[in-house]
């Protein structure tokens, strides 16, 4: 469904004289990413407003999760629907866990999670870990609640990276090389 919609949009955006297969594929992929992100954010906002009244937590989690998740070639759900559902389950779990987990525990676990993420990541780039540590530090200076969301983000990121490494045996993950 989303593939057909993005393909139609891509064909309508590209002039006919420039409409090669690769141009359409690239634009279509970008449109899919935009639609997917918007759908996930809108559903997350809906869930945050109407079911949990945790809009502030949604904002904190998004500010923490999105940049760190974008750093890693990772493992993603096989379908658009699976991605939207999984993202929203992560959101709901993160916003509720943020009120339960003590900050001191999160702070003590952050270095361990950063090490695990480096060890488990496909990229093995120290610069990513340094960026993540700096990003988390700066966010935590601005608001201490970011410590908890940074912990949850790294925990989720590690689960997705490690879980994705067994993509041959795990049915909900697949490797996406972007």
Automatic annotation (TrEMBL):
It holds the Pfam family AgrB. InterPro entries: AgrB. This is Accessory gene regulator B. GO terms for biological process: proteolysis; quorum sensing. It comes from Thomasclavelia cocleata. GO terms for molecular function: peptidase activity. Keywords: Cell membrane, Hydrolase, Membrane, Protease, Quorum sensing, Transmembrane, Transmembrane helix. It comes from the Bacteria. The keyword Protease applies. The chain crosses the membrane at residues 26-48, 55-72, 78-98, 134-156. GO terms for cellular component: membrane. The keyword Flavoprotein does not apply.
């Amino acid at each position: 469904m989303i593939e057909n919609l993005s393909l139609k949009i891509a064909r309508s955006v590209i002039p006919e004289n420039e409409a090669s297969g690769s141009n359409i594929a690239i634009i279509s992929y970008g449109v899919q990413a935009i639609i997917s992100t918007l759908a996930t954010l809108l559903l997350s906002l809906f869930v945050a407003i109407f079911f949990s009244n945790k809009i502030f937590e949604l904002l904190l989690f998004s500010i923490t999760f999105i940049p760190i998740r974008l750093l890693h070639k990772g493992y993603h759900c096989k379908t658009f629907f699976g991605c939207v559902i999984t993202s929203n389950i992560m959101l709901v779990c993160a916003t509720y866990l943020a009120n339960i987990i003590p900050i001191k525990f999160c702070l003590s676990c952050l270095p361990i999670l950063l090490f695990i993420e480096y060890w488990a990541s496909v990229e093995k780039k120290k610069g990513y870990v340094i960026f993540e540590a700096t990003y988390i530090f700066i966010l935590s200076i601005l608001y201490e609640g970011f410590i908890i969301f940074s912990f949850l983000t790294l925990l989720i990121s590690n689960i997705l990276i490690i879980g994705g490494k067994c993509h041959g045996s795990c049915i909900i993950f697949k490797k996406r090389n972007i």
